[in-house]
Fold each of these.
Amino acid sequence: MKCDYGEQISMLIDGELSAAASEKITTHLIECEDCRALERDFLFFRREIQKPAAELGLVSSAASIKVSEKQKESRLKLLFPAPAIALMALICVGLGIWYFAFYPNKNKQISSERESRAVPETGYSNDSSLARFDKGGRAEIYIAPRETNENQ
Amino acid sequence: MKINKILFYVFLTIFGIFLAGDKKSAARQPTPTHVRFQLTTVAESSGKREVLSQTTIEGAPGIDFNIDLQTGNFKMQSGFLTDLIAPDKLKLRAALNTRRFYGTSPANLPLYEEDSQTKTFEISFNEMLVLLPFGRGSMNETLKIEITPTLLSASAADAKTPIKINFDKQIPSGEITVSAVKIPHRFIVEAFLLSNNRQIAAGSAECLLEEIGEIILDAKTSGKPQSVDESLALKIKIDKYTRNRPKDLVGINFSVDRKSSATGESFSIINGAAAINIIGEEFSYRLENDQRLKNQNYEIKFRIRPAPGEQAD
């Protein structure tokens, strides 16, 4: 191929050329068989690439292919749109917070289950026995006036 | 006739003196007394008071009783030694031991939280002792065991009757058990210092059960060229009285210090020795730890008997 318009043909297909440059390349394509073949190849590859995106419905219309003048600077194309990526990131953060917040409690639950499985000294349940008064405090003994408690 | 009258009046006078003396001696005799302990288990919840159990123990002064509680993962053993130290005052020595299941170790072995307390109270008969097995805990729900002493007069016959325990109201689950026993608390401890099987010093003291008493044995030798101006201080504690047949046993812990009256210095000869022997019988202990005493073949003999008025139930 003698012409050196490969890049410009690609930009023409992407709509990234100015009006004057587009007209120039279009005129050249009429005259040059090799460049027309190159254009066909570019179009073929673009169709093949856009097929999965079209099936998933992530590309709304053919018009989205054309990049506006303001978006010419960014050539990076994302497979998913930004809102979807933000939503997925938020879900991952939420899962992480839930894991670290509640997983230690799960361990405590297992430990307490193990404690409750330990056979009590007497075998009495905590509901009806004096164990309901046991809050883990230390035993105490002291002198108290007799009259005060008798009056209660 | 005159002689008969004189003899009659003399006899009357003697008889009157005899009667007066008998009344005085009767007045000097202490009035037999009994002490009654009322053990009341109370549940206080939101200002309400519910009596769960009540037990009454009555007997001659010097009753020992135990209150044991076992529930869930908690166990409490409490022992009380009581002595009437004054007509209106009681000495209560309490020993509390608790044990609570805490959890499991990383090796899946059980872990327990244990506590031990000993306290001495002097309580008058218008006061009571309150035991909180689980501590003060929540203000809304507390379990209390109230120990209320009462001094009662008793006849001479009743004074020697065995302890009475009445379970007025019991907890159906049986989580609280009460037991009582009457053993001597006051003992006369006699100690004799022997040198080459010859008694050279003696001493005695009245000791209270589980309290340390001290006996000084003056080891001054006589008739020897060198006099030993020293004394032995014997500290003894009767820590156990065991009911046994044919005779009861008594266990002691003692230590012996050698004190120099010239320098005032004190040296430990025996520390933390223990012995157990039949009450009223002699047992001896050789002093071989001190080189100077060893040459004299020193030996201490003990004889322990209950103090007058003390008896086992």
Amino acid sequence: MTELRHTLRLDGCRPEPLAHYLKALAILRLVSEQVDPHARGAWEGDTFVLASSLDREGLTRFLLDEWRPTPVISPWNGGSGFYAKDNKTGPDALTSSVSARFERYRAALALGRSAVERFRLSERPAPELKPAFVSWLRARLDDEALPWLDAALTITSDGMRFPPLLGTGGNDGRLDFSNNFMQRVVEVVGEGSDRLRSGRLLACALFDDVVPQLTPASVGQFFPAAAGGANSGPGFSGNSVVNPWDFVLMIEGALLFCAASTRRLDATGQDGMVFPFAVRAVGSGYASAADHDEEDSRDELWLPLWRNPTSLPELRLLFGEGRAKVGGRTAQNAVDFARALGELGVDRGISAFTRYGFHVRNGLAVQAVPLGRWRVRRNMHVDLLAPIDGWLQRVRRFSKDKGAPASVARAARKVERAILALCERNDPTRVEQVLIALGELEQQLGASLRFARDAEISPVPWLPSSWLEGLPDGDPEVRLALALASRGLRGRLRPVGTHMRPTWLEASEPSVTWTAGGLVRNLVALTLREDVEAARGERTAPRGLTGVSLDDLASFVEGTLDETRIERLLHGLALVAPAGFPRKDPPATGRRPPPAYSLFALLRQPVLEGVTVPRAPEVARLLAAGRGTEASAVALRRLHASGLPLRTAHRDRTAGALAGWPVPSTSAARLLAATAFPLGPRTLESLLHEIVLMDPNPQETAP
Amino acid sequence: MDFATFYARATRSPDRPEGCEPFPYQVALATGPELPDLLTVPTGAGKTGAVCLGWLWRRRFGPPEVRRTTPRRLVLCLPVRSLVDQTERSIRAWLDNLGITDLEVHVLQGGAVSTTWDATPERDAILVGTQDQLLSRALMRGYAMSRFRWPVQFAQLHNDCLWVFDEVQLMGVGASTSAQLEGLRRAMGTARPTRSLWMTATPAPGALATVDLADHPLRELTLSPADLAHPVLRARLGARKMLSLVDAPRPADRAGVIARHVAEGHQPGTFTLVVLNQVDRAQQVFGELSRLLPGEELRLLHARFRPLDRARQEDALAPHFRGVLVATQVVEAGVDVSARLLVTELAPWSSLVQRFGRCNRYGEHAPGSARVVVVDITPEEASPYDPTELETARDRLGTLDEVGPERLSVFPPPQEEPALPVLRRRDLLDLFDTEPDLAGHHLDVSVWIRQTDDRDVQIAWRELGGQPPPANAPEPHALELCRVSIARAARWIDKAALWTWDPLDGAWTRARRLVPGHVYVVDVTAGGYRADLGFTGNAKHVPAPVDVPDLMAAPQADGDDPLSHVGSYVSLRDHAADVEAAMRELESALGGAEPWSHLRDAALWHDLGKVHPVFQKMLTAGLPEGALERAGGPYAKSDRRRAGRMPRDRKHFRHEFLSALGWLGNGGDDLTAFLIAAHHGKVRMRVRPRPDERVLSGRDDQVLGVRVGLDDDRDHLPAVELGDLVTRPVDPLPQGLLVLGGGDGPSWSERTQALLAQHGPFRLAWWETLVRIADWRGTVRREHPGTDMEGIGD
């Protein structure tokens, strides 16, 4: 490498739009292949920089005077210039040309024509003939003409596959890219082209110089801003207007996206995603995301930006393989890809990816829409998804089946979106959203047991307790949900057996108490059920490691919290095994719930101060029925009868038969619900102090 | 000794103690100035003998220049398994007769794959195998072998080989691949002369005119007038086979009618062949014949058998079998049998020609006594064939009263094109990279090896007692499996449970639908299979499960290092010297213009990375305090007993990668660096962290167990003695190597891509292999001085 090196900033080559990204790849590829094998390219900020033997003038002269266009033909498409009704200006001009620049092109066109003859076609091959037709061509095309074919389509054991980048085999709706390419090639470097004008257009394409007059042509999905329509610019209507060099170089750049054999033949790729950096779309992670984007869009592309000057052979390897890896497997959809960035499951040296969706936005035309820039960096929470990866994959697979309930499919999509958001930024609310979405998904599966069983989708495997650490810690809703979840309520929420590995139970499982009625009603129902089970001696309710503060309980009793959030979080947190919850017993500072709560809460403790408190199911029933005052009287009597020395003030109330605290009927159920939250020993003691005389005094205990 | 004497000696047999005289074309092949590319000779004219003995003559007895340019390895590639045994038997007999003992014959076919042939590249050898086994190896994705050894066998199948493809017309896409490989070898060059010879009975050079071979004119050798005048050949080519046609019976009577024709025409003490187009019809005819011909030897052969059951039927293919063989198309493929009576269903012309070839093959039956009966079929029963193809065949048969080779030669061979898909240069170059496979992907190269019947599933019958297979049940072994078409399997199975292994869940799950190519386990009580009939779909046929011996050793994991543990502790210094010496011996045995100095450097430096303290600690973990060995080192090998394990965070440590970094850090060149890195087949074209490596090590800069970062905990290399050489210390390691675009120099990928472009895959793999073989030998030398080279390897 003794010759002079030039470093050339190509301001016309940028990560967005897609056409401009591809242009960068084209320049590097063509210069490496046709001028300087040691050429290198890198992304500096948002500009592509070419290091080669060419300076600005040299690059311009090369493209205008020497560049040999890569043969791009698609005789498998209608409109490709091989059939009677097609526009043939491009192919005819190339065929009749005697320029050595187009020699390879002429050979490819001739082969295309002999393929059409061999298969006796008068119009594009029928779908069932297409694989044989394409395979015949692939067997014979010149090595240099193969990349286009391999980039445009691939034949797999279950039919043809098309990459998102090149539509359905090198066309977009009625626009055939190859035919257009030929026309534009003729326009910019064909015999009789206007060299001066072409040079100015080229300067604009490469260096972002001012645009001279443009050509009407259809650019398709690569360059939506230029794709015509009402707002595409002053003075233009109808046809899209585009710099022919942009189109030509865009196609030359797209050729780098031909999958390597090692990618195309990978039998482990379950979903058959065989194209480089292409993954299934997930309609989220960008502002205008909507459910229908997922259905109408094709796959996505994640395009790498790298910072070190890199040679073509190495980039070929990168693009040929075009994988990101998550948990050791190839990323299949956008969520996987985003996770791979957090796991650093991409080649070292790639700093970021531009994500592109392909959306049907106006009628049939497909547009490549940039969906944001994703940096490659470690994201610890993404690692937490590893234990449920296999499960998620299975749900993903089956929730797309025809027979899958819509509710499950919806919930599954929500999980993916939440994960995607978390990959984008690791913050506590996003961790919370993932948990909530997982809880909801299990809830929906639990409601569609037949489907879950048929698809052999188990309940969510236990999540590691490190999930608990990422949650927003300043919110009472989170603290209350954590406390409830620490009681191990999963089997109350849905028919899940939680012994060792979570398994589905019968839908009619009586221990499930949770319904759609809201948090308070559900906690009341839970409490009543626990009383029934205790009365039958079936089991005693677990108490939970994570105690709540009286302050938070006071808010709960007042009804000022977002209870929907508590409930949704509970569904998610229930997926963490109870043993992993933190032991908590917050100090009793700040506000307290009304004393009636203390009374009812104490009565639900099996042992107080060494005294076994008898069960008082009627108290709960009275509360549930809104008869709070009666309930408090019964409760006081119960406590008294068990021999606990009540404070004088309370003792008096036990005297009169119907006395007790006045408890408004509207808050009775809520008070009962509040007793469902676990309490730490210190908190319990503080409640006890409130009701019971803790320094036993013989006088006071006397009746 | 001249070739005729040699040939006669080789072909001696009890029937013919004086041996055979070679046909003129066989002499031409053995003694001509150059080997042909195409050998077009009718079936039964001794093609195998021509190439095997011709090669042997040229390699061992020809003029010095011919000997020198004749490849060391003869690779016989055959389209079907049944031909392999037959060919191997012939070759062994010839070698026995010739008293040649220093030439090994290795067989490579499914279920019996020789693994020892690849350690001795300087010896002459004959490999006989199926196209599946051989072509998969030539595509760097050998079936039924260690992934890490792929490059070794790839190298030795593309260097110093004479490939002979027999019955090319039956190879389908394998023929295209063979042509492309030949064309690509010519274009990209090999280290050692390698060439191909295609043999066929029907000339179809069009099938070989693939894009990279079409420009090379192929020299064809065919029968000369002298051959045609030769009495033996004249008898074979003039063999007469009287034809009679039978109108299509009603479908319900079909099996009975065919069976009666067989029973009436069969003469005890002779061989009768019956060929049906479908398995169930073959089973029915077989059933009818069991009644009609009690006491007669009856065999049934088709593709719906488990391997061992099929092998029991295949004795019918032995030369001395007398009785009736009922078969499907499986016997079309070049099987060397000769029936007196052939009864066949109407089939497409090309199939019929193959079937006719199995009757009176050698002209051994008197004129008029060898007979062919073709039973017509109705268009409704045409499946699996196209009725219009049958129409053509019917028309042609209508003009014939006998079907000997001479009579058939009037019909022109079809204009053939290469079968699709065709392997392209970029495909082969991609396949040279084994990294995706090492990273857990599985590449399926079968599209270039054989057209597979995609509509088949494979079934294993096991005793499950109505339960799912236990979680630890092994995946089905090849010997347990029977191929069944999806349609038939679906009809049969209906209610019974099919179990399939779900690698995603790591559990056996009940199959919800049948997927082509997948493997299923079913309870024996579901029935559907009988050992003597194959798959029947009849629930009353309850098979015994196959007892699978534990044939497969536990597969080697990526992190394993079996070669690092031998009988005693060996220092790095000594081992480096041993391997370098082994390389020098290879050099003198092989000669030639290899880059020997690079190869010697690679041999000397290959284990440098073992000096890493973690590796040394692992080697000596079990040594007691004060053991003599504790004072020595650094070691290249432990004594096996007293080694420990690599710690979890270094689970993926690859010493050869560190060796290569050390070599580059000492200012070494890229080729040698590649050869060093590749010496276990685990670090080759690309270097990437293994999937769980970042998690296990908690470091982003650790790649293959080597820490290339710049913090205090980084890895580095001290000065080390390797043989007589002392290396310079390297600190820090060249780390930019691992980043896209490189850093202080080109990246690893860029370097290896440049090597591949410069030397091509065939040379690069060959040199890679020489280093590995030198390593094996250097290792064995210390452990068992004077041991044989076979069966060793990493």
